[in-house]
Specification:
The structure is a homodimer. By secondary structure, chain A is α+β, with helices and mostly antiparallel strands. The first copy, chain A, has one domain: Arc Repressor Mutant, subunit A, CATH 1.10.10.10. In chain A, strand 2 and strand 3 form a beta hairpin. In chain A, helix 1 crosses helix 3. Chain A starts with 7 loop residues before the first helix and ends with a helix.
């Protein structure tokens, strides 16, 4: 029928993994953007990047965007919109670019570490 | 001189990334082990897998091992040791094997997602 419900331990793992991932990809999208983007545009970029559009629901992005701005990695401004409520546009700051460079190094290091351990442990 | 101190945001990112990673690699090491392992042996496996032995300090493993056992993914028993205090040996449970299979899928999915977004976002 359907997939079995993930166990609490699996949900915890997914949640932990997501926590770091969401900040990283948001920073990545904005570090490559050529102009400030608002939430829906950012969410669209994430969909483009993945077949699994449900992975990162748009509503889940806003707290992370706010947190990144609070830490000085993003800056935002609100602009009126003709088609609805005002939109908050985000762009990356210089601090954000430095953080993204560091995080990219950390990300690749972490991925290599996991690959190496999982490969190495076959010989235990 | 030395590397600059990582910013609070970078420390938070590293911490979030580590949270999921540690559980995953511990489960991976024990899923491939042919016999129960105690903490020091597990830490050794992690060193083998990586040039960076400081990434996962031995002391940081114990709370995660306990948490995995509490969730039924690992089982442990204490055995006396000739050379020191008794040792707690860990092995993976059937539930743990199922979780590791799921986590491996989640891990690869997450890695592909990040790669795709970062690649895609170059064209923003």
């Amino acid at each position: 029928m359907t997939h079995p419900e993930p166990s609490p331990a699996t949900r915890k793992f997914q949640k932990e993994l997501n926590a770091g991932t969401v900040s990283f990809v948001l920073l990545g999208v904005l570090s490559h953007a050529t102009e400030p983007l608002y939430g829906y545009q950012i969410a669209k970029q994430l969909e483009t990047g993945s077949e699994d559009v449900t992975m990162m629901k748009q509503g889940a992005l806003y707290p992370v965007l706010r947190s990144l701005e609070k830490n000085g990695l993003l800056a935002s401004r609100v602009e009126p919109s003709l088609s609805g409520p005002p939109r908050r546009y985000y762009e990356i700051t210089e601090t954000g670019r430095e953080a993204f460079a560091q995080w990219t190094t950390i990300w690749h290091h972490n991925t290599r570490f996991v690959d190496a351990v999982l490969k190495g442990s076959y010989h235990v």
